[in-house]
């Protein structure tokens, strides 16, 4: 299966005239921040070994916080090209995302209101 996942981005790079420097892959989930492939990619970016990063789907690089990773790449003049956009979602993925959005939205007034309470002098050092 991994070979098929690599085939399409490789063809995409050929069609754009890109020279493929390396193909990085991880067998662990994209939530894991200590993935060897991701760490090697960051190292390649810092050492100016790449100009463009090509990924099939955005969440193949990082499931959450992609914007931070993209900012890091842009600060190093590296462009990210996502070949197929977002991965198709099944019913359960959409349900989880909707649930998280509701929890985040409904929780905001609670968190915002909590900040209106003046902290006790004993807690001031922690802020």
Automatic annotation (TrEMBL):
Residue ranges constituting the Resolvase/invertase-type recombinase catalytic domain according to the UniProt record: 2-115
Q: Entry's SUPFAM superfamilies?
A: Resolvase-like (SSF53041)
**Pfam families found in the cross-reference section:** Resolvase
Which superkingdom, per the lineage?
Archaea
Give the matching InterPro entries.
Resolv_N (IPR006119), Resolvase-like_N_sf (IPR036162), SSR_resolvase (IPR050639)
Could you tell me the keywords of this UniProt record?
DNA recombination, DNA-binding
Keyword check for DNA-binding, yes or no. yes
* A molecular function GO annotation: DNA strand exchange activity
This protein's name: Recombinase family protein
Species of provenance = Thermosphaera chiliense
């Amino acid at each position: 299966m991994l070979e098929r996942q690599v085939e399409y981005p490789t063809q995409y790079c050929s069609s754009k005239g890109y020279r493929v420097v390396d193909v990085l892959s991880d067998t662990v989930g994209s939530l894991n921040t200590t993935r060897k492939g991701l760490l090697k990619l960051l190292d390649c970016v810092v050492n100016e070994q790449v100009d463009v990063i090509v990924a099939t789907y955005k969440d193949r690089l990082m499931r959450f916080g992609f914007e931070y990773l993209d900012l890091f790449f842009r600060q190093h003049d590296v462009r990210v090209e996502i070949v197929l956009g977002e991965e198709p979602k099944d019913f359960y993925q959409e349900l989880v995302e909707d649930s998280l959005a509701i929890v985040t939205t409904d929780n905001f007034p609670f968190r915002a209101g909590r900040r209106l309470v003046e902290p006790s002098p004993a807690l001031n050092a922690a802020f």
